[in-house]
Amino acid sequence: MSDSDVPLISARGISKSFAGVSVLRDVDLDLNKGEIHALLGENGAGKSTFAKILAGVHRPTRGTLSLNGQSVEIPNPLAAQRLGITLIHQEPISFPDLSVAENLVLGRGEDGWFNRVPWAEMTREARRQMDQLGVAIDVTRPMRGLSIADQQMVEIGRALASDSRLIIMDEPTAPLTPREVETLFGIARRLRDEGRTIIFISHRLEEVRALCDRVTIFRDGNKISTDPIDSLNDADIIRLMIGRPLKEYMHKHNASIGEVALEVEGLTLPGRFQDISFKVRRGEIVGLGGLVGAGRTEVACAIFGIQPAERGVVRVNGAPVDIRQPHDAIAHGLAFVPEDRAVSGIFRTLSVEQNITAAVPGKIAPRGFIRRAIEKLLAADSVKKLRIRLASVRQPIGELSGGNQQKAILARWLLADPNILILDEPTRGIDIGVKAEFYDIIGELAEQGRAILLISSELPELLALCDRILVMAEGRLTAEIPRAEATQEKVMQAAVPRIQQQAAA
Amino acid sequence: MNIVRSILVRRETGIAVMIVLLCLAVGLYKPQFLTLNQLRVILLLVPLIMIVAMGQMLVLVARHVDLSVGSMLGLSAMLAGMMFRDMPYIPWPVGFVVAIGAGALLGLLNGALVTVFKLPAIIVTLGTLNLYRGLTFIVSDARQVDRQFVPSALKSMSQTSPIFGIPWIIFMALGIVLLAWWFTRHTIVGRQIFALGSNPSAAELRGVKVNQITLLVFTISGALSGLAGIMYASRWGFVNPSNTGAGFEFQVIAAVVIGGVSINGGVGTVPGVMLGVLLLGCVAAALPLLGIPGTAQGAIYGAIILVALLIDRSVRQQGIASLKMVRA
Amino acid sequence: MSTTGAPTTPAAAMHEAAPARPVWHVALVRPETMTLVLLIVAIIVASYLSPYFLDIGYILRSFTLSAEFALVALVLTMVIIAGEIDLSPASNMALSACLFAWAQASGIPMPIAIAIGLLAGLAMGALNAFMVIALQLPSIIVTIGTLTLYRGLAQIIAGDKSIRVPDWFIGIDKVMVLGIPVPVVIFIVAALVLGLILAGTIFGRQIYQIGTNEVAARYAGIRTRRIKLTLFLLIGLVSAVAGMMTASRLGSVRYDLGLGGELQMVLMAMLGGTYIFGGRGTILGTFLAAWLLVVVSTGMTVANLLPAIQLTVLGVLLIVAIIATNFIYSRTQR
Q1: C157 in B contact zone (CB under 8 Å)
Q2: With an 8 Å Cβ cutoff, are B302 and C148 in contact?
Q3: Neighbours of chain A (3+ CB pairs under 8 A)
Q4: CA geometry: angle A191, A197, A199, nearest 5 deg
Q5: Residues A185-200 pLDDT 10s
Q6: Domains in chain C, ordered, with CATH?
Q7: How high is the ipTM of this complex?
Q8: For B307, which residue in chain C has the nearest alpha carbon?
Q9: pLDDT per position as a tens digit, B266-276
Q10: Threshold 0.90, pTM exceeds
């Protein structure tokens, strides 16, 4: 029948810019009924932006969408929902105080404020929905306390309850255990076989290969290609994604490796991480890899005193130190560039100047009173050294681009002249050009004899920059891989939680 | 399995146990506390707080707070009282319409300021707390509406009883409680208030009409304060521009938070709030019997608010702990 | 890399950062300017209503009636900039003054009685700080609780009676320094000191940083708890001082001393352009707002308006002030 030949969604010339910065350019894409379609690309390639346009989170700057051959507007998420498009977020958005059943039905556009809530029917329906998905969740319990996998299942259930034709999964597998991933894939395949369309966004090639029918690759805001997955091998995909060999923009400086600067022994915070021990030497870049949620950031936070560990020893230059708060860590020559810039990095409405000098009060105010001249000098110096692009050091940092904000945060810590630098996903969400600058800076810092602990989810970044790579899974260190032996496969193998390895064995 | 709900259940049983223990303790010391007459005293103390507390609960569940309830009560009572005094030809039940309508309008203004200008409710209602009280003086010319002007039919609602010697106003309060229970449990909009308080941004994404609901909860809080205003006239027989409803907000907030409504929004039950109000009533009734001067009441309400905050916090921590266990 | 990197066209480079605002815009488009303009307008209108307003002595004498609240409002400004709020200072004033008056009336030597009052103020600040910082409860609700509690305790201590203070203690507002009443002098000196601290020291700088983003402040090694504790203790202590100044002015202490003062304090901070969500505001703004408020309320008294109407005006002013402040900040922040 010709009806099934009409693509479910046809996107033509979709473009999007934020504040004048173009993040998506003229994307044409057809999504067929009954297919699982992967969107691949590096961070910031535009795949998530495209997905969010389909889900009504963003509106395109230009371009048209049609659904079943009919032109449609998707002004907001609710409209998307009504058209049968559901976006499932990585960490699902839910109402923690309401029951699972209520979470399933809320927002289905019930009419009439004073209509009766059909508790019994709702619960029965929800139970049926969960049974259909093959998951055992008590639908009368509140959402609060459900695991992320279960929350995703509830989201999928919600998409089915409203009979969604297009389900977009944005990196759904990152926080899941392998077994949960298998369950998710099983359900996804079943939905496809029912004729629904699924968009699957992931970084993991093997998952894409296992699940998807076709793949579209994005790079720097452009759609590069759409092909059946079988017609591409991994090398092709990587080539299309990055457009150039990795080596070109990543190179390790030759720093001489010296004494142990940071040593961690038996660090434990129950429920977060267990028995973490490692050393970082001067001039050494040590990578810390693993899946999201493996406990890497928590370890960094514990070392830096943001949430101290319950047991274990931290030694700085050989001497045990007691770090109860970040202030102590700074006094011991540590610095920490956190993962989430907006939440724990910048003071958005304050000047770039103030942001840069925030960690060195003693330098700008020798006797408690701030000396503007010193402050200005330090800030201007950092701006020059790190090539921060701005109009004035007096402007609010919120007006800068993400990459330049991140540089300012790095500048803040370099002013403190740390011996030990912990970087948590330092290049997340910044564009490729600035990324390369960061890699150069990190290399230079190691050359200056600083010890660097680099947390990153991007394997190529770890492989290219680090002298050693530590890998965490489920709160434990699972591997320590020297540079010479490090491969993507080895790191991934260690990053995958143990339960699956046992299951596989 | 059903962790949070079982905590909530325990919260309600907890308050009930506290009420029983308090009554027994006071009763052992002063046996007359456990008489039917004393029950009547307690029951007559609580209807006003009970009604206003139901509105305050909705406001708190939606992650706001309404400090102006006492002033709205005073102003609506004053308007109704002045109607009784200056327009005696109007049938007295119209006073209910006037008071509830006035309260609803005042509450609507609170809600509008909060939603249109995106202002924190606490500052807005701190402003209107004073604004409405000032208006009460202005409209009344700073004069009290004396006993002889309040219709005796209205006053008798607090004394005569349809059944069991329980006065009318208690049944009215009970009616409001039932209505509130039905509203929060069984209407779509009632559940949406909880959704909004539980996760405002998600509520917006799911098409919950956040602004309308915010307006609604403030309007309800105002309307119920207005109802309490006319019942004040019934209970005490006069309306005074400076006393009527003054300081009422603290009693109401104390009752609501001790009743288990979370200041973080999204959590709260009508039975819990009802028990919280009763507990407060028992305390208020016990004080004079124990020889504690009425002047101590303020301090006790303050202490109750703080204690309730501590309980709220420990309950939340249990919630977080259980979350950890699930994830590990 | 530079050959293959992302295109760094001039257009893209321009988008790296929005252009900075011109200097005059930064200097003039701010809430304090609004406060100053309003103050000038108020003085002109008031002097039109009554020639008294051209007499600086009259304005100074009127200011003594609000000086205590204004003094506390200066510290409250810092608390609000740090992202917290304290609604309990007016009750704190009553309780510390009651304790002080009760102590000296029961024969305790005056210096010790004063110390008791001041320590009580500190202790009340410490209780607020404990609940907010250690137990991480929202200060808004905590201080509503302590607002009720402190005044309730004052009522227990003083009952319905007023406690007299010794004659020599009475009349701080009648003592002049260079022709200026002492409470006004205290206010001006406090404004200078606190203004200098807030604008010129690291302590002040970190208050803004905490109020802008507390998490980031902590990550940057700022001891957020210590700074907040200092602020809560300071506002407790200053409230106690203000309570005793009020006792001296009135000559006796009742439990309802300073009743409803929290409105005026919050109002002064808001009128002065302190941002209710923290991170913005100045001592200068609150300083100007205090004078504005005095001129307005004295003007209303001169114009023979009922106190109740003044209450209404204050309530309206509070709401208008936050709306205006929010508007100005949203304009200057992109």
Answers
A1: no
A2: yes
A3: B, C
A4: 105
A5: 888 898 889 888 999 9
A6: 10-331 (1.10.3470)
A7: 0.80
A8: C145
A9: 888 899 999 99
A10: no
